[in-house]
Amino acid sequence: IFPSNSGNKEITWMMLEAGAETDVVNSVGRTAAQMAAFVGQHDCVTVINNFFPRERLDYYTKPQGLDKEPKLPVKLAGPLHKIITTTNMHPVKIVLLVKENPLLAEVEALQKCYRVLDLICEKCMKQKDMNEVLAMKIHYISCIFQKCITFLKEREDKLDGFIRSLLKGREKDGFPVYQEKLIRESIRKFPYCEATLLQQLVRSIAPVEI
């Protein structure tokens, strides 16, 4: 996967889909993402860090162990995978991706999805090659799904109301307070306190007042 150094996002993506391993290191002990970052190819780093093989999600569409039913209905795997692999992490973008798919924009569907996301997050943190970046991203999406459920249950305007809340700015300066609080809440709820990424985020956000 080291052609990512050349900056070609499409080739990088094709190699990932063909099964290239992102955690393999070269002769100086660096992964493809680390090498791409070293030479300034940040678009390729983004592609690598946001890649999530579809088969890892399809695992949950089949009953496991003593389960009689799969944790994730097959019909939800495609829409959920699209959200997991998006590189635009703005909360409004994620809510719009939910809203545009009728299969996903239902309380029961979102409940199943966020539970699967929580399992994926746990795997990312407990696997041999820990992936804190992916774990945090998956957790963040899970938090947004849970907030979607709240709006679908409690508000007549449903997800449109959620989007308006995210976009509404404070009167004096237009600052989106609700959006900021949602993002901070998702960071605070990250269940793995020992994660280096979490500690870095907390250190950078804590001194900044809303």
Automatic annotation (TrEMBL):
Classification via InterPro entries: Ankyrin-MYND_dom_contain_2, Ankyrin_rpt-contain_sf
SUPFAM superfamilies: Ankyrin repeat
Domain of life of the native organism: Eukaryota
Protein name, entry field: ANKY2 protein
Species in which this protein is naturally found: Podargus strigoides (Tawny frogmouth)
